[in-house]
Amino acid sequence: MPAGKKLYFASDFHLGARSYKSSRQREERIIRWLDAIKVDASEIFLLGDVFDFWFEYKTVVPKGYIRFLGKLAELTDSGIKLYLFKGNHDMWMFDYFVTELNASIISDELVIERSGKIFYLHHGDGLGPGDKKYKFLKKIFRSPLCQWLFGLIPPDLGIGIANNWSKKSRTKGVRTLPERRYEHGWLITHAKELLRSAHYDYFIFGHKHLPLEKEISPNSRYVNLGEWINYNTYAVFDGTSLELKYFEKPE
Ligand SMILES: [Mn+2]
């Protein structure tokens, strides 16, 4: 890593979710964050569900997010490297952001080494035991044939259906905080499983919408990035240590 430079990690912005107004406010908050970190960021990792729904047709992309995409373009044009992970809400990113933002699109996990630390990065969907129904759906959603067929549906209809689906899957699992602590379990199980065959310093996930930092073995930490509807959480690595932080910490 270049001296003085940092890695930044965030996920689950769910842009487009809830009302236009609330999404725009969130978008502006994210832009303030990007402006704050661009001074020392060398790489930015957005670990999925950046959009509440994203599907790229051959010649059409969803409306909106102009300021956000413009800000990302400013950062990547200035030389900051951007990684966009596919989440369960926005796995239909193909080459648009590669062409426009020079981003790397990550389909599943990404393992990187920076300053001697090994990072395992993944959105967090469909990992660990259980969640059989979703794992099956994910196979369908990711199949090139199904994606090709979906692409034949006119965008107004296709995106309309998808937005409804997205809203349902997002509101279905809303529970109170203490009840949701256990939800990290499968991801932690998955991480511990990986530790049997190799060493990782940091496991970073999103998806659970619940920020958490936890030591899972003497030299390995589990970090969940939370989300930006309620928490505005992100992680930063300065070459020595990783920290989970709040941006404009909500009351
Ligand atoms: Mn997710």
Strand content: 15-25%
CATH level 3 topology: Purple Acid Phosphatase, chain A, domain 2
- Termini Cα gap: 35 Å
CATH architecture designation: 4-Layer Sandwich
Number of helical segments with 4 or more residues: 8
Whole-number count of domains: 1
Which structural class fits the helix and strand makeup? Answer: alpha/beta
> CATH H-level name... which superfamily?
Metallo-dependent phosphatases
Number of strands: 11
Q: Give the integer mean of the pLDDT values.
A: 92
How are the strands of the largest sheet arranged?
Answer: 4-3-2-1-10-11
CATH C-level class is: Alpha Beta
**Approximate helicity band:** 25-40%
- The arrangement of helices and strands along the chain is EHEHEHEEEHHHHHEEEEE
Which compounds are bound in this model? manganese (II) ion
Model regions low in confidence, pLDDT < 50 over at least 5 residues: none
Radius of gyration (Å): 18 Å
Shape: globular
Task: Reconstruct the topology from this structure.
Layout: E1 6-10, H1 20-37, E2 41-46, H2 66-77, E3 81-85, H3 96-101, E4 104-106, E5 110-114, E6 117-122, H4 132-142, H5 144-152, H6 155-172, H7 177-180, H8 185-195, E7 202-205, E8 212-217, E9 220-224, E10 233-237, E11 242-246
Parallel strand pairs: 1-2, 2-3, 3-4, 6-7, 7-9
Antiparallel strand pairs: 1-10, 5-6, 8-9, 10-11
